[in-house]
Amino acid sequence: MARDLLLEVGAEEIPASFIGPALDDLKRVITERMAEARLKHGEVRTFGTPRRLAVWVKDIADAGEDIVKEVLGPSAKAAFDAQGKPTKAAEKFAEGLKLTVDQLGRATTPKGEYVSARVEEKGRVAADILKDALHAAVHGINFRKSMRWGDVDMSFARPVQWLVALLGGDVLPVVFGDVTSGRSTRGHRFLAPDAIELKAPADYEATLEKAHVVADIAKRRAQLVEKVKAAAAKAGVQVLEDESLVDQVTNLVELPSPVVGTFEERHLDLPPEVLVQEMKSHQRYFSLVDGAGKLQPKFIAVSNTPVRDEQLSLRGYQRVLRARLADGRFFFDEDRKTPLIDRVEKLGRVVWQGQLGSYLEKVERFRTLALWLAEQSGRAGDAATIERAATLAKADLVTGMVGEFPELQGVMGREYARAGGEPDAVALAIAEHYLPRGAEDALPTQDPGAFIGIADRLDSLCGIFAIGKAPSGAADPFALRRACIAIIRLVLGRGYRFSLSAAVDESLRLLAPKIANAKRKAGEPAPREQVLEFFRGRLKALWGEQHRTDVVEAVLAAGFDDLVAAQKRMEALSLIVGHADFQPLAAAFKRVVNIVEKQGRDVQGGETNPQKLVDEPERNLHAAFTQARGAVSGLVRSDDYAGALREITSLKPAVDTFFDKVMVMAEDKALRENRIRLLVEIGALFNQVADFSKIQAETASA
């Protein structure tokens, strides 16, 4: 009879950002262990609050499934002598499996014939499987930071207070430190502090709700959003949307209870971003706006308990915020006393990266690179704005406000630039060079900020790769993956046309004094190749979300030096690849590629000699190719890759006839090499769009 499983780890307040990853770890380990033991089960749910992490697995079988498996023993030659009698090796193998030699069989493998046996492996009972699984799960959570307490010789995010481990109505023995599992959970710390016994896992969620705890994260989040919006509407305002803040507050409370507070209206003359950041970062308050999106002198704080004396509670919330806003005003007023340009020199005392120098050195590099990018892209008209904005781009890092709120870098640079009389275009570029900050963030609205942002990130990528600190596994301390994706989004979103490899070369040239003595592992590719391969990986991941994997591979194999062109090629190929007549074209191209790869390297360069084309099919192919080459080149120059593909497709009949009627590998060397040269030229024509040999034949007509 199937039973449900419940594991709950109760602790002192767990940091909000730890809860989601910890639940993922618990769920992963438990489900993996059940899968390994062939233990069938139903739905798996997780629950989490600041005081608990829980996993509920429904309909667990009584035991793992039985299986019969074939076990290989010694080779047949070792198991039986020349007369066919079993040797000690066979006897020992049978004895180990509790079988007789007569019960052994034989199995043929790529390495030869071996003795084998069919063995039945009984599934373990669920309780035994789950005891091990829960122990591994509780002890295997990877917290970003953990702590020890008392005499407990192990660590957790916060001290563990209780454990619940139930299989149906039975308690499973799980121990963590000095805490042993039972069936007692806890309700809300203040509203239901006493222990609560659970009869079965199915009672868990409802029992906690009666004890003033909303354990389901999604349900608690929805309640939080609904209550916050209702409180805002009652106050005649709207909530400034902030999904990350909603997620954070959801995991700070077990029973959300919002209240609306106010702050002094005079603070509205501070930049809105300062006010929002003061409320969000330190207090986890929601900012409020009017119908036009203008910030209002009100906020919403979320309590973990229903507020009995709202005025008393509000006085506390408002007093703390008043102090924070006073600090913000002090930083803002003090920072504006020193123009940004006077702060630039101080960047020489702020280290960007030990081997790569100070922020001042970084600014000098990416300023030059940004101007180069603008010129290469044919948009050098903003050179003066780019130069000035790049010079000032990092100056706000040495201000009091950014020192207190690093999230405001760029924003405060914009405000201080305006206060110092810099042109609006310069101020805007300072702020926008940080965009996009994330996957959903907007792109810069003007070229100067975009070019500075690309240059800044490319300097980081090239510098970090050059000193041998590239990302490895999940570790990416310099956020290079995010930087690379941002560059790609900027280039494609703004439509910039320049050579990516040349940009990498220019960045590495500017970094040369810093990376000249950098040590690299033996056999490791040069930084240039590493950076370009890194871009290739990010492009593959990004484009693979919307396009077929083989199409992405085909386009990348043909080159991605011009990112905009590569994207246009991919979009064109994606449209044609599903057509019924494309598969034969891809097959024909693969024949071209195979011959070129096998024979082309032995053929001297040069173009096809029409005088040496003796058979009519090869002359027809050369004529068709010559005509198509001119058309394709013109279409590629105008970015009409769909048209180029149509021209390439028109070659298919001539290619097919050539392969059917002409012997490419003729005995006459001159004839053979001339035919191979023709195929090399045709392959190069195809490769202006994509490497069709990468297209999967089984899906080409899908």
From TrEMBL:
A Pfam family it matches: tRNA_synt_2f
TM helices/strands, residue ranges: none
Main location: cytoplasm
GO cellular component, one term: cytosol
GO biological process: one example: glycyl-tRNA aminoacylation
Catalytic activity: tRNA(Gly) + glycine + ATP = glycyl-tRNA(Gly) + AMP + diphosphate
DALR anticodon binding domain segment(s): 587-688
One term of GO molecular function: ATP binding
Keyword terms, alphabetized: Aminoacyl-tRNA synthetase, ATP-binding, Cytoplasm, Ligase, Nucleotide-binding, Protein biosynthesis
Subcellular location as annotated: Cytoplasm
EC code: 6.1.1.14
HAMAP family per UniProt: Gly_tRNA_synth_beta (MF_00255)
Family of this protein: Belongs to the class-II aminoacyl-tRNA synthetase family.
Subunit structure and binding partners: Tetramer of two alpha and two beta subunits.
Protein's recorded name: Glycine--tRNA ligase beta subunit
Native species: Pseudomyxococcus hansupus
